[in-house]
Amino acid sequence: MSGDNGLIDRSACEVVGLLKSGDVTPDDLLDALETRIGQVDGAVNALPTLCFERARLAAKELMRKPADARGLLAGLPVAIKDLTEVAGVLTTFGSPIFKDNVPARSEIMVEMLERQGALVYAKSNTPEFGAGANTFNEVFGATRNPWNTARSAAGSSGGAAVALATGMAWLAQGSDLGGSLRNPASFCGIVGMRPSPGRVATNPGFKLENQLSVEGPMARTVEDVALMLDAMRGEHAGDPVSLPDDGRSFLTAAREGAKPKKVAFSRDLGITPVDPEVASICEAAARRFEEAGVIVEEAAPDFSAAHDTFQVLRARNFAISMAELLANHRDLLKPEVIWNIEKGLELTMDDLVRAEHQRAQMFQNALAFFEEYDLLLTPATIVAPYPVEQRYVEQCDGQTFDNYILWLAIAYAITLVAAPALSLPCGFTAEKLPVGLQIAGPPRGEAQVLAGARVLEEILDLGTVKPIDPVAG
């Protein structure tokens, strides 16, 4: 089961090079993807909605333009998460409430990608409204981990990560509030990056200044993620916190590979249990920075208020955006979504004041920390992929969690301080399941994160550019 290995096995950067040289056409790529999806998606359920006809029409329009006017991606197909609206394409948000929703207009982020020559050919599976870091829903069912199909792909960008790992995508978009890009990247052995708030313009929805949830790129290599971030970035009038493009290429930064001078590693950020095997794999990978002459020390900012802060601010966002859905469609919402909305509706002004003050202090702590350390390294997730039937991680290393969010703390702590971060494949467990290393940098320090990640990626040399066939569990 190999698909068109001449294309499927190549990196996104290589394929874009072939597009720009005229050695392949967008239709060649769409043909290769259609074949590959037919071969492997039945085993993993990553891309439940396909729109190849739309992609081929877009390709025809793109190819009418001069070669130098086809954008950074030049006709490269890109998969879009089913939380993001694409004009004329079924977009369910993983919810029975929207099982027949076909939007008339695409969201800002999709428009930005298409301006850079992206072709949308598929929607990737996600949990209902992105809640719960395990990709299953009542519309399309569960997405399975290709390294062992009995295991979870995590979430909420689980379908995107699986599509990349199996060669059904060269690039895929995801979103991240509490690790929704980083967790599935870790579980599936690919790279997923959470950019700084505002780096990628998005539809703000009901809360104009929302800076917890961001859109970001996913791929099999650091360079490919950097390429996609270049294509996604930019200011847009529809997003009041979007950042202008300063003209510096993230792909160039990744390729230049500027070495950090000193990095910090923390097994747990002082706030969460971590599976000992996962922690050991991540620490061993972090220590390999020393081979490049980088100083590696154990340290972390003070994140002691992260749990309370994140739960309050996350619940507030759910209440603002979904209170009406709870009132009108409670019977169609899963328990985790109902819990989040109700928790938000119960918040007091004292709760919100406390959470915002705590977040501000953590942000200052992080700024001071990154004056001493170039990067902060941690496990991207606290466990290896767990059984797909398990809704979430209930316990770790002897500690039981009292809600489904707590196991995500090592990711959401980084969210709270507006730091860019990515998950880099860094090794495998004894069961041959992938483990990701979280690499975080100072706010708006994407170039720094990508450069450092590229240095370590080269040292680790895990060969993740080539997709895998699903392994039955």
Secondary-structure blueprint of this entry?
Elements: H1 5-8, H2 12-21, H3 26-44, E1 49-50, H4 52-63, E2 77-81, H5 108-115, E3 119-124, E4 136-137, E5 141-142, H6 158-165, E6 171-176, H7 182-188, E7 191-194, E8 214-219, H8 222-232, H9 250-256, E9 262-265, H10 276-287, E10 295-298, H11 306-329, H12 335-345, H13 349-372, E11 375-379, E12 395-396, E13 399-400, H14 409-416, E14 421-428, E15 434-440, H15 446-460
Parallel strand pairs: 2-3, 2-6, 9-10, 9-11
Antiparallel strand pairs: 1-3, 4-5, 6-8, 7-8, 7-14, 11-15, 12-13, 14-15
Please provide a written account of the structure:
With about 475 residues, this protein is an alpha/beta fold. It has one domain: Amidase signature (AS) domain (Amidase signature (AS) enzymes), CATH 3.90.1300. About 40% of the residues lie in helices and about 15% in strands. The protein is built from 15 helices and 15 strands. It has an 11-stranded mixed β-sheet, sandwiched between helices. Strands 4-5 form a two-stranded antiparallel sheet. It has a two-stranded antiparallel ribbon with strand order 12-13. Helix 10 links the parallel strand 9 and strand 10. Helix 6 packs parallel to helix 7. The longest helix is centred in the C-terminal third of the chain and has 24 residues. The protein starts with a helix and ends in a 13-residue tail after the last helix.
